[in-house]
Amino acid sequence: MITQPAIALILALALVTLLVPRKYFLLPYVVAACFVPADQRIIVADLDFTALRILLVVGLLRVVCAGDGKPLKYNSFDKLVIAWVVVGAIVYVLQWGTFAAVINRSGVLFNVIGTYWLFRKSVTNLEDISRIGRMLAVCALVMVVLVAIEWTTGQNPFVVMGRVRTVVRQGEYRCQASFPHSIMLGLFWATAIPLFVGLWKAEGRKWLYMAATAAGVFIVVATRSSTPLLTLLIVLGFLFLFRYRRYGRQAAWCAVGMTVALHIVMKAPVWHLIARVNMIGGSTGWHRYHLINEAINHLSEWAVLGTRGTAHWGWGLHDITNQYILEGVRGGLITLVLFVVLLVRAVAKVGAASLRRISPGHQWLLWAICVSILGHCVSFFGVSYFGQIILLLYMTFAIVGWVFSDPKALRIEEALIAYHREHGKDSGQLDRHRQLEHTGHPARLP
């Protein structure tokens, strides 16, 4: 049952989606992801309309009816995203062979392709990425106050908005705010922190991003969950490797070699290392190791068309706390391969873009986006995504799609920004120059 406060907020955000200027078009989606619980939905003829899906419908109607912008020129990354979700849907339907499965996957296709397309249409330059970061930063500052209340009192302020709660583990509150689980709350902000740090280096609003970074760290700690905390430590470690990022390819191959070597010399499989992760008391690292081990043992069962369930693999293994395994279970080995290729290409392309001859600030911003993707890759070993964090993932994919869109786009954007800063031009002139570039008439700069 959807609550009245949730209805009011969703309606307000839908109205904002229709009326807000294009440059703030993604604001309602960011606010909804942060503050509207995922369980709030309207059911019409067995079709679920969550807050984000309602906003997606409204946003698509605005873009289509208003003819907002020229059609996208699909690049290899865009096609890879579409192939990943379409192939996964086809395999899922073949596995179940029911009309209910068709309806289910149609909803997934609408969510993924619709959200990705909408965000790709909205991310057209570096300023759009910066604007998304500012929106998230302000939301973090608001969220940290509410999480602090939950952390100190054990009372979740979002209970008026939906069926959320605060779980107690070993005498400590596990804050979850508006998210369906404390791990999802922690991972949302752990993977957003790199963007704050990147903008901290790229822009002049250092106080905002410093405060947002501190807020994000506090929220991650307040969730009392090992997966978000480990992800946070890893992304911070990658951020400190900024000056060594040109050696990323060599480092990746070294990591693969070390993993193979460990697998050879260890008595247990190398993935048994996951069982030893226990940064917060009460963590379920062994369950995650057991899930990976049984997924490998049952490879022939799910490799072709996935499988309908995993409960028979072992006790508690109906709960698939691994995004990679979930991709395989639902869509077979081909979907899993497409998903891994998608992530590898995203990391490689954005990492390479950070090495271009652009300003150090923008190099930092692109490296931060690359690190955020790496953070998702790490967290996928400990959890499968659900709830609002899906929006952050697709938003990151949309940014990657823009990086793929034009090899010269970043240099052109850098030239425009540098010229307008040097000559003190207003933002309206900068937007007009961008418009000329995006419509195929390159701006002539002196």
Automatic annotation (TrEMBL):
- State the species of origin: Anaerobaca lacustris
Name the keywords, alphabetized: Membrane, Transmembrane, Transmembrane helix
Transmembrane feature ranges: 42-65, 77-96, 131-149, 179-200, 229-244, 251-274, 333-352, 364-383, 389-405
From the Swiss-Prot or TrEMBL record, give the protein name: O-antigen ligase domain-containing protein
Source taxon at top rank = Bacteria
